[in-house]
Design goal:
It contains 8 helices and no strands. The chain is mainly alpha-helical and 114 residues long. The protein has one domain (3-106).
């Protein structure tokens, strides 16, 4: 199981609206199960770790907001399904290269652009 697989899953749902629609209706346990059936191998914990790094990087590094309920990113989540929010407001703000680097904790996105 791997965080790399979850990053590849995020890229897939970002690039395929049909897949995003299918997965956006699922809770995390269902998402992990169905993603595994399609060749992705990650746990809910691995997904949470990647998501946390991506959100932290956007809120604190890119946006310069505090990491709390007042951040601009946090406000985008309200009234949306979580995967839709994650795809539209987090994943789309990164290149594939940045998603891999930041999502896997290798370096900040701004250093990845060099």
């Amino acid at each position: 199981m791997s965080q790399e697989s979850f990053v590849q899953f995020l890229i897939m749902v970002r690039d395929d609206q049909v897949q995003l629609s299918r997965y956006d209706q699922r809770n995390i346990a269902q998402l992990v199960l169905h993603a595994k059936n399609e060749g992705f191998d990650f746990t809910a914990r691995e997904a949470e770790e990647v998501i946390g790094r991506l959100e932290y990087d956007l809120i604190c590094e890119r946006d310069g907001d505090p990491f709390d309920g007042t951040s601009r990113l946090w406000l985008c989540m309200w009234g949306r399904r979580y995967l839709g929010y994650l795809t539209d407001h987090v994943v789309r703000r990164y290149t594939d290269h940045e998603l891999v680097k930041v999502g896997l904790g290798r370096l900040p996105a701004q250093a990845a652009v060099s």
